[in-house]
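tool=predict chain=A
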Amino acid sequence: MQEQQGRLVRNGIDNSTINGNTFQAGEMTVNLPPAPAGTQWPVVVGRIPPRASAFQPRAELRQAIDAAREQYGTVVLSQVLAGGGGVGKSQLAAHYAREALAAGTELVAWVNAAEPAAVTDAYARAAALVRVPGASGAVADVERDAERFLDWLAATERSWLIVLDNTTDATPEDLWPTASQSGRGRVIATTRHRGAASTGSDRALVDVSTYSPAESAAYLRERMDRAGCAHLLDEHAVELADALGRLPLALAHAAAYMINTRRSSGRYLELLRNRSRTLDQVLPARSGADGYRGPVATALLLSVDAAQQEDPVGLALPALRLVALLDPAGHPQDLWATESVLGRLSAAAGTPVEADDARDALAVLHAYNLVTLTEAPHREVTVHALTARAARDATPGDERPNRTAADALIELWPEEEHTDRELAAVLRGNGAVLAEHAGDELLDPAGGSHPLLHQLGISFLAAGLHTAALRHWEQLASCCERVAGAHHRDTLAARNSLAAGYHSEGRYNEALGLLEVVVADHERVLGSDHPTTLLPRANLAACYRETGRTAEAISLGERVLADFERLLGPDSRNALTTCANLAGAYQEAGRTEEAIRLRERVLAARERLLAPDHPDTLLARSELAISYSKGGLVNKVIDIEEKVLADTERTLGSDHPRTLTARANLAASYTEVGRTGEAISLLELLDTDAERILGPDHPKSVNIRAQLAIAYLDAARTREAIELNKRVLADRTRLLGPDHPDTLTVRSHLANCYWYAGRTAAATQLHERVLADRERILGPDHPDTHTARSNIAGCYRVTGRVHEAVAIEEQTLADRLRLLGPHHQDTVVTRINLSAGYRDTGRLNEAITVLEQVGTKTEHRLGRDHPYLVMARGCLATLYRIAGRRADAQRLMRAALADHVRVFGPDHPTTVALRETSVRLAIDPVPPAPSQRPQQRGRR
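tool=predict ok
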C-alpha cells in the first residue's frame, strides 16, 4: 500500500508563508501529513568523511561561515565553501556534519555533487530513509523521489543539514534546497568554482584558502607526533610547508610520504625541488577557481613513488591510474577481480597478478592517502576528485587504461538490470564518468566503439531515464560522426539508437525523419540483408505505426520479421520484438485474430526464454491482454492486467513509463466492463502522474486524458467529457496532425459527447466528417470505419431518418459478422442498435430475432456481465413487452434490472432508464424505444 500523499492545492499567494504542516510557496500549497512512524532519528545519508589526522579547526574561517548563516532568517541559506582543490573544504563540511549530529540534528545528508545524477540518487535514498510521502525507493523513480525529498525539506519541522560536496557549474539549480519551514534546515556546499552558480539570494559565498603559516606548522607537528615521527621535522619544516603552498591536501601527502619512508622534511624538500620542472610541465600552475598548483601534484606523485615500492611492488601506480578514471564517489571492489583489470596489472608487473594482489595494491594506496576504502555497497573504492585529476593529468595519453576500465565495467554489468538495480546504477555512474574522461579514446574507427558506450544508453532506458538516454545518444552520434565519419557503422548504430530515443520520448516525427535516412545509409553501406540493417528497418516500421501509416507498418514489419527469423532465428530477441510490433500494427488495422496469434507466440517464447517477471515478459503479457480486450474478452483481460500491474510496479517501480502503461490498460478495461468509478479514480491519479513524469505533450499523457474523457462520459459527466475531449483533440491535431487515426478517434469521441448532451446536429455533422476521413485513410473495412458508420446511424435514427439508419446498421452488422464473427463485442452493440431501428420501423419480430441471436456462446466468451450483453438483455425485455409477451418481459426485465444495478450502478443513466421502463411495463402497453448507444473506440 502506498504511503499517504501530501495534498496539493493551487493558491494565489506570492510570498512564501509557513504555518504548522501547511507550506505555501508561490501558487502551491502543500499540506503534509505527519511523518510516518518507524523512522529512527537521527538519519544519516551518505558517508561523512572521517576526521583527518591532526585536523585544524580553522576558527577564523568557521566564524566567517557561521556569520554567513546567521544573517538570514527562515530561508535556507547555502553556505558555499569555495576554493581550489585540496584546501580542506570537505574536511570543514564534514566537521559541521559531525557537529550537527552531536547537537541533535535529525537528518544529516552527505551528498557527492560532482555529477547531477549522484545528487538525484542521494536525495532519492534520503526520501526512502525518512519515509517521504509518495517516495517508492525504486531505481526507476529516482528523479521523482528526489523532487519529493526537496519538497519535504521545505515543509518539514525537523532539523536537517545537507552537505553538497564538490558542486560544479553543472549542478542544476533545482537540486539545491531553498527553504526550511522553521529555519532549522541548512545547506553547506563545497566547490572549486567561484562563478555565478555559487552565489545568489539564497547562497553566501565563503572563500576557503590554504592553511595559515601557524596552521601549517601545527598540522605537520601534530601529524608527525601521532605517528611517533616528530624527529623527522627539522629546520626545513616551515620551508617545506611554504613549498607545498600550505595546501592541506599537499601537506597530508607529504606527511604520509615522510612517515612511510622515514625521510626528514629536509630530505623531502630536496626531492620535491629536484622534480619540480617535470611536474610543472605535467601540471602547470593555474589561476582561477579550479586551478591546481604545481606543488600539489609533486607531493602526490612522490607518494606514488613510495607506494610503488611497497608490496606488491609496482602495482600502486597502474592501480591509481585505473581508479582515477572512475567515479570519485566510488566503484565496486569486485572490479579488481575482473579479467580486464588483472590482465592490465599483470602486464604492468611482468608477472601474473591475482585478485588478492590487486586488493593489496588498493590497501597500499589507502595507506598513502591516495584512495579511501569504505564499506559502502558497490562503492568500496573511493578517491578524492583532486587526486584523481592529478593522476589523470600525470598519465601520458597512450598509457591511460580507458579501455581496460570500460572492459571491467562491462564484465560487472548485470545481464538483466532489474535483478540488481543498485549495482546497475553505480556502474551507470562510473560509466558516464569514464566516458567523459576518455573522450574519443573509446571510439575506434578501425576496431569499433567500445560496447560500454552502447550499454550506457540501454541502461538509461532500462531505468526509465529516457531524457538522459536521449542526451547520451545525441552526444554519441555526434562524436562518432566527427571521429569516424557519417557513414561509419558506429555512427549509423548511434543514430539508429538516437531515433529510438526520440521514439521513447514520443517525438515520432523526428524519429521517422531520422530513421528514413538511417535505413537508406545502412542499406547503402552494409547491404539490405545485413542483420544490422534490419534494426533500423524494424524501428522504422514501428514508427510508421505510431504516425498512423498502418499499411506501411504492416508491409515493412512483415518483411523485417521474415528476415530476422531467417537470419537470427524465430526466438531471437529482435525477431520477438518485431513480432510484437507487427501484432500492434495488425491491431491498428482491425486484424485482431492475427494480432492475438502473434502476441500469444511472443508471450510463449518469452515465458520460455526469460523469467516470468522479466520486464519483456510482462510487456508481452500486457500487450496480449490488449488484444484479448479488442477481441471482446474483456473480463478475461482484467485478471491479467491486475497481475501485470502488480508485477510491473514491483519490478520496475511505480513511476516507470511501463508501469504507467499498465495502469492505463487496467483503467481502460475497467471502463469497458462498467467499473467506471474505479476507472475514473485510477485515471485521474494517472493523468497527474503522467504529466509529472513524461510531460503534458507525451503521447502516453495525451492518451490517458482521452481515456479519462471516455470514463467521464460513461459516468454521465458530459460537460467534463466535452471539455477534456476538446483539449485532447487540440493536442492530437497539434502533435500528430488532423488525419492521424488517434486524432480521428478523439473527434468521434467528441461527437458522441455532443450526442449525449442533446446536440444532435453537431454530433451528426462531426460523425459524418469522421466517417469520410476514416474511409479515405483507413479503408471501408477497418473497425474504426464501422464504428463511424454505426454512430452516424444512431444520429440519423434520433433525427427521424430511421430507414437510412436501418440500412447502415444492416450493412455494419453484415460487415462485422464477416470480419469479427458473431461473438465479438462490436457485433453485439451493432445488434442492439439494429434492433432499435427495426422497432422504430415496425419490424418488431426482426428486432426481437436480431437480439435473441446473442446466445449463450457469446455470453460464455464475453462474460455474462459484459456491459453490451447486459444492455442487450434490457432491450430484449422491452421488446418482449411491446410484442405482448408479458411473462417473458417481466422475467427478463427483473434479471436485466438487477444486472444493470450490479454492473453499472444504481444511478447510472442506463440503469435509471431501464428502471423507468420496468415501471411503465405495468401501465403502458407500448414503452418508448430503447436508445441507441454510440460506440467509443479508445486507444491504449
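Confidence is low (pLDDT under 50) at residues 1-36, 275-295, 923-931. The two ends are 26 Å apart (CA to CA).
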